[in-house]
Structure formats: C-alpha cells, structure tokens
Amino acid sequence: MEISKEELVACIEKARRKLEGSIEDGEEYCYVYENSVELDRLIEIYIAMGY
C-alpha cells in the first residue's frame, strides 16, 4: 500500500504538532521520546519515497 505525498505530509504535520504539544505540556520524557520517534519514522518514509 502506497500513501500519497499529501497524506504523508498531513501525518508528518500531525505528528509534529503532537510532539510540540507534549514538550510544551511538560509530559514525561518517555512520551516526548515516543512522539519524537514517530515523527522521525514518518520523515524517514517521506525521504525513502523520494518526495
């Protein structure tokens, strides 16, 4: 299954907002880290797809 560029960008933006929110809210490190890893994974997919 291939995801469109627009869908992937939307997922990246959602993950970025979630990460920023967890940092701003002072959430525990494990949650901030988990959100960071998810964003990194999506960015990796974006790069691998050659967008």
Looking at this protein, list some descriptive labels.
51 residues, mainly alpha
Descriptive notes:
This is Spo0E family sporulation regulatory protein-aspartic acid phosphatase. Helix content is 78%, strand content 0%. The protein is mostly helical. Helix 1 (5-24) packs antiparallel against helix 2. It is elongated and about 35 Å long. The two termini are 16 Å apart.
Question: What is the element layout, followed by pairings?
Answer:
Layout: H1 5-24, H2 29-48
Helix pairs in contact: 1-2
* Computed CA radius of gyration, to the nearest angstrom: 12 Å
Order of helices and strands: HH
Shape: elongated
| Category by helix and strand content | mainly alpha
Helix-residue proportion: over 70%
Protein name: Spo0E family sporulation regulatory protein-aspartic acid phosphatase
Organism: Ventrimonas faecis
Q: What is this entry, summarized?
A:
Helices cover 78% and strands 0% of the residues.
